[in-house]
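Our preliminary data section would be incomplete without showing what the modeling component actually yields. Below, a chain of 303 amino acids is followed by its predicted structure, encoded as tokens that our downstream tools consume directly.
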Amino acid sequence: MRFPKTYNLETIAQIIGCDYIGDPNFEVLGSNEIHVVQPGEIVFVDHPKYYDKALNSNASVILINKEVTCPEGKALLISDDPFRDFNKISTYFRPFQQLENAISLSAKIGEGTILQPNVIIGNNVTIGKNCLIHANVIIYDNTIIGDNVIIHSGTVLGADAFYYKKRETFFDQLISCGRVVIEDNVTIGASCTIDKGVTGDTTIGAGSKLDNQIQIGHDTVIGKMCLIASQVGIAGCVVIEDEVTLWGQVGIISGITIGTKASVLAQSGVTKSLEPSKVYFGTPAEENREKLKQIAYLKRLIK
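Predicted structure:
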């Protein structure tokens, strides 16, 4: 998430009520998660296991729960609870806006786009030209939709990320302030759910086609010309490259990459990154021929 203007380190420290290490006039441009953070942005870290990763990331400001040596050219925000204070930043710069109308007055809708009855369009949504949004679709704030997009009934774009920190007596939610971005010529089936990024974008690439009842987690990036069949579940922070095919009921864990033109057969469970241009099957998913050989050998052993 980029801030509406450049802030300095001292001001950000005052907003969240913490100490800092660095030039008080150090420029801060936004906040982001570690896998997508850019120079000028804040990242948070609250576990020693990830200190080095955060300190050596692209982030210019590290919100951390321990005083450590500040890397050259960076700054630190010292907090007793970085998770809580990262939420403070998200709430301050992108507070919840109650929707006053079914179609927000701030939404921008392109020429030739058709909205069927009971569509809900949130604040600051942009929809391109010649789109068809069917009845009962819900599009949350800040979503971006390109031209010639079709979205079928019951689909929800932009719900919160499934991202929680376990406290002693409850689960604390990391506030989502990212977006969903749907590029040109995408079709999304009925009753799909595509969660917005925590601080970045969940993206569906141009020309991709989604069947009914698909779940796509936060910050996942799906490439161009992908085919995704019914009941596929994709966790957060997944990268699916161009022209990938996912058949029905495929499940994909978070943080992995599926290479260009890979195909994953129905009911497979993907637990690690997959190479391009190969066919995969099974749980854990492996190359199809190898998996079929394993099944054949197992049958022989049983006999």
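The mean pLDDT is 97. The chain has four helices and 34 strands. Preliminary results of this kind motivate Aim 1 of the renewal.
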